[in-house]
Amino acid sequence: MPRNIIIDTDPGQDDAVAILLAFASPEVNVLGITAVAGNVPLPLTQKNARIVCELAGKPETLVFAGCDAPMGRKLVTAEHVHGKTGLDGPQLNDPVMPLQDQHAVDWIIETLRAAPANSVTLCPLGPLTNIATALQRAPDIINAIEEIVLMGGGYFEGGNITPAAEFNIYVDPQAADIVFRAGVPLTVMPLDVTHKALTTADHIAGFRSMGTHVGDMVAAWTDFFERFDKEKYGSEGAPLHDPTVIAYLIKPDLFTGRHINVEIETTSELTMGATVADWWRVSDRAPNCTFMGDLDADGFFDLLTERLARLG
Ligand code: BDR
Ligand code: CA
User: Fold this and answer.
1) Is 241 marked active-site?
2) CB of 81 closer than 6 A to ligand 1?
């Protein structure tokens, strides 16, 4: 039985690859995609989500627009990484498939209230505003949540938007705090993992050599996305963050981590959005998530390449 998932996202080239991986994988069933403001403002993230659905040949997918600003702070975006559109790189056409009228948060609440217990997995790939707003407005929805698997945070790798904080958590730390305290099974893909999922020139050549439209688009996206991080880190390639979330649902054995306590910094401006991970279990705070620390990078890219090749 495929796992029912909701992808909450702010595309973003790496979000786009994550969405494609989900569509290409029979282990998951995408109930809908909810867009949130993050890498770029909401009008672009909801549009980008629809561009990706059409690219995957899934124009029937339900796509909703959600929150356009964090719960208590001004929106910070990342055009310096993802370009002006959020999906810079290849030439893109405007989508023709519709955006649903309903607000993403209302749809998440309605869908979870109608679902059997422990039957839906939430996959947040951006700031946690939509998910936290839904949890705050309708705490009963946790009954239907099987697991939340999210990309965010960093411990050994520190931060990527400030020295202390990773982008998704930094943009809306209040929302992250609500999610990390929600008491639902939570699996976290921090920078400690995603910085090991580097798109090398060989991987990009592999996408291109698929000889498909999807392969060409993913190659163009990863090419664009790379330039910033390669220069910043002096690395061989750039981290492909968000697809780790979907890869975990398909092949959890690719990842190793620890069930630990992680708290979110919400007050200090200096360390705002830091994920204070008790990796060494030096506090008596109760574990609230599985915080991943490592992945089998070759296995991850083999999976990604094999799956993306299934799309036309
Ligand atoms: C995260 O921030 C965004 O720029 C990426 O899409 C990813 O979700 C990495 O810090
Ligand atoms: Ca993202």
Assistant:
1) yes
2) yes
At 145 the three-state DSSP class reads: strand
Say how many Å lie between the first and final Cα of the chain, rounded. 24
pLDDT digits (tens, 9 = 90+) for 44-95: 999 999 999 999 999 999 999 999 999 999 999 999 999 999 999 999 999 9
Classify strands 275-277 and 262-264 as parallel, antiparallel or unpaired.
antiparallel
List the one residue out of 182, 185, 181, 128 whose CA is nearest residue 153.
128
| Mutation test residue for ligand 1: of 76, 82, 129, 168, the one with most atoms within 8 Å of CB | 168
- Whether residue 168 has its Cβ less than 6 Å from ligand 1: yes
**CATH level 2 (architecture), domain 3-308:** Alpha-Beta Complex (3.90)
Which tokens go with 187?
Answer: 């699996």
pLDDT in tens, 121-153: 999 999 999 999 999 999 999 999 999 999 999
Ligand lying closest to the C-alpha of residue 45: 2
